[in-house]
Amino acid sequence: MPTADSELRSAVATAADDLPQTMRAAVYTGDSTIRVQSIPVPRIGPGEILIKVHSCGVCHTDLKKIEYNLLPPPRIFGHETAGEIAAVGQAVRGYEVGDRVLVFHHIPCMECFYCRHKLYAQCPVYKKVGVTAGYEPAGGGFSQYVRVMDWIVQRGIEKIPAGVPYEHASFVEPLNTCLKGVVQLDPQPDDVVVILGQGPIGLMFTMLVKRTCATMLATDTMPFRKMRSVRFGALAAYDPGEPALRARIMDLTDGRGADVIIVAASAPGIVEQAVGYSRPGSRILLFAQTSHHERIELSGADVCVGERTIVGSYSASVDLQKESANLVFGGELPMEDLISNRFPLDQIRAGIDMALHPEPTSLKIVIQPQGLS
């Protein structure tokens, strides 16, 4: 791979004095393997910026790609990225070296059929990854530097206020995806909402639904996560399938069933369980059902005759970018309480293993490519 040279510098308006030519990156090499290697710092062109990555959250979509070899190697994953601008390309306006920023790796064109209907995740431009550390663009946050392409620079960067830790800022993208689902469901104060799964995503749903004043119940298999759920606003949390949950739902709703169900985990039978907990006319959100191999078997009458609405929500919304950033930056949500473990880049395999096989008190795993702060 080429290294930084005079051609690179000609496309750069300003750069940090200490910008290196090589960096460390966790490279997916196939066979469910990640290797930390030394590779060139990415080149940037006009309209682009280079970010020195300080924090990147481990997301289950990246875990699936690595563990199940869903994409051909080599790639550098990681997309919940926050850091410091290290170089600014020609024609970039509004950003300068030293700015603290977070970046969204998908941004829509705002002009196509899907964008006109606000289905941004279906936009062909949105489906392109606009942040890379090298190789085929895949987010790149599991590295020390990432290149941000021009269409992302235009709409996909948020500045981080002074005093907000990088690791908190890295939650803005995943929180946005949850906020999108909550806005779609529109829980009302007199609704009973059941959230299935209380991992980091499920707990963010719990935080957000609390703001609507709806009554919440939740499920998870891990006692620590159930305790966190109640701390973040759930009335109670249960083991999946526990008879007491159904009894509580029926007690709270005069025997009707839950008004809203959020499926924030993926497990055999979980969608069928969601329908069973819900009342006729309820709204059910499928958030974690991202695999084409996952199959769901439901009674057609439960949907048709029962007039239930089952919806999907995937990825972030550019319309909610500012709001999700403000929720994190303003301290309204306890993001710090979601972080259980931090790993330097050289120990990323341990972080991935912990995310795949959670320990009793583990929640969000954060990678710090510049070293633990």
| Overall body shape | globular
Number of domains: 2
Helix and strand succession?
HEEEEHEEHEEHEHHEHEHEHEHEHEHEHE
> How would you state the average pLDDT, rounded?
95
Identify the CATH class of the largest domain: Alpha Beta
- Radius of gyration, rounded? 21 Å
Strand tally: 17
Proportion of residues in helical segments:
25-40%
Kindly report the CATH topology of the largest domain: Quinone Oxidoreductase, Chain A, domain 1
Largest sheet: 9 strands, mixed
Euclidean distance between termini CA atoms: 30 Å
Structural class: alpha/beta
The percent range for strand residues is 25-35%
What is the assigned CATH homologous superfamily of the largest domain? Medium-chain alcohol dehydrogenases, catalytic domain
Low-confidence stretches: 1-8
What's the number of helices? 13
User: Do you know the CATH architecture of the largest domain?
Assistant: Alpha-Beta Complex
Break the fold down into its secondary structure elements and pairings:
Blueprint lengths: L5 H5 L1 E4 L6 E9 L2 E8 L8 E9 L2 H8 L12 E10 L10 E4 L9 H4 L14 E2 L12 E4 L1 H6 L1 E3 L6 H4 L2 H14 L6 E5 L3 H11 L4 E5 L3 H9 L4 E3 L4 H10 L5 E6 L6 H8 E9 L13 H4 L5 E4 L8 H9 L9 E6 L3 H9 L7 E5 L5
Parallel strand pairs: 10-11, 10-13, 11-12, 13-14, 14-15, 16-17
Antiparallel strand pairs: 1-5, 2-3, 4-5, 4-8, 4-17, 5-6, 6-9, 7-8
Helix pairs in contact: 6-7, 6-12
